[in-house]
Design a protein that fits this description.
Elements: H1 2-11, E1 15-19, E2 22-26, E3 33-35, E4 48-52, H2 55-65, E5 71-75, E6 86-89, E7 103-107, H3 113-121, E8 125-127, H4 128-137, E9 142-143, H5 153-165, E10 169-176, E11 181-188, E12 192-199, E13 201-206, E14 216-227, E15 231-239, H6 241-260, E16 267-270
Parallel strand pairs: 4-7, 5-16
Antiparallel strand pairs: 1-2, 2-3, 5-6, 6-7, 8-15, 9-13, 10-11, 11-12, 13-14, 14-15
Length: 271
């Protein structure tokens, strides 16, 4: 009887088994298994996710960890989808050979403060005071392309300064000028009739991404609205912003293809 009790107790003791190099402890209660992989000198299965902020770091990570079946996938909807611009799957598998695909790194570029500010104000209604403050803070982004009649940064600053001084007025009429400007006539208390020249459009030159030196030029259209005859509101529209983002994505994608060509790692465009 005593021997039978000892044998039963021994049978109920946890035991160890190994599955593909990973040790497990199995308890007899419900046969629940607990992995002991963390007790090994190194993991049997490489599982990690790394987020990188610039293309140079992303490329260097791939060169360091890339394998025979590594592949890079670039998002066709970045940045609208809030997904990373690109993702590398180190263990992507091959035809007829599946893989866990869980060693990954993503490229999530950081937008510069200037570019983020312009995108944030794009097609948003803004009052005249806030427009003056915004233009003053981003005056260094405004450029006049050679061979155009677009306003210079100084002219835009003059417009903003004049606009900031307009308080109690009554707007009378507007005239479209031949040089791409609009002239607003208004009457101001104690100052009589005055004119305000509004540029219809101007250009900015900005660097979209931190850690990426390329700059891009954008046309900015200005639309105004007279409200109740006494105050102005504005809308700025970044023209061809989608083309800029597409060009930026193509530039980085082409750079990845060039930098990884020697290693034979493919770069795909995914929806």
């Amino acid at each position: 009887m005593e021997k039978e009790m000892i044998d039963t107790a021994a049978e109920r003791r946890p035991f160890m088994l190994e599955v593909k190099g990973v040790p497990f402890i199995v308890g007899h209660k419900d046969y629940e298994a607990s992995s002991c992989e963390k007790l090994l000198p190194r993991p049997v299965h490489d599982e990690r996710l790394v987020t990188l902020a610039d293309a140079a770091s992303f490329t260097e990570y791939i060169r360091r960890h890339g394998q025979k079946n590594t592949a890079v996938y670039v998002s066709a909807t970045w940045p609208a989808s809030n997904a990373p611009m690109a993702e590398v799957i180190i263990d992507d598998g091959a035809a007829g050979q599946s893989s866990w695909r869980d060693h990954r790194a993503t490229l999530s570029p950081v937008l510069t403060k200037a570019f983020s500010d312009w995108r944030m104000i794009d097609q948003e209604k803004i009052n005249q005071l806030n427009l003056c403050v915004f233009l003053d803070r981003h005056l260094q982004d405004i450029v006049r392309p050679e061979g155009t009649t677009a306003p210079s940064a100084a002219e835009v600053m003059t417009f903003a300064s004049t606009l900031s001084d307009i308080r109690k007025v009554e707007f009378k009429k507007s005239v479209n000028l031949d040089n791409g400007r609009v002239q607003l006539t208004y009457t101001e208390e104690d100052a009589g009739t005055q004119n305000l020249t509004i540029p219809r459009e101007f250009y900015i030159q900005v660097k979209p991404l931190e850690g990426h030196d390329s700059t891009y030029r954008l046309k900015v259209s200005i639309r105004y609205r007279i409200e109740d005859g006494v105050k102005l509101s504005f809308t700025l529209e970044l023209r061809d912003i989608d083309k800029l983002l597409e060009a930026l994505r193509k530039e980085i994608t082409d750079g990845l293809k060039k930098d990884l060509s020697a290693s034979g790692i493919p770069v795909y465009l995914k929806a």
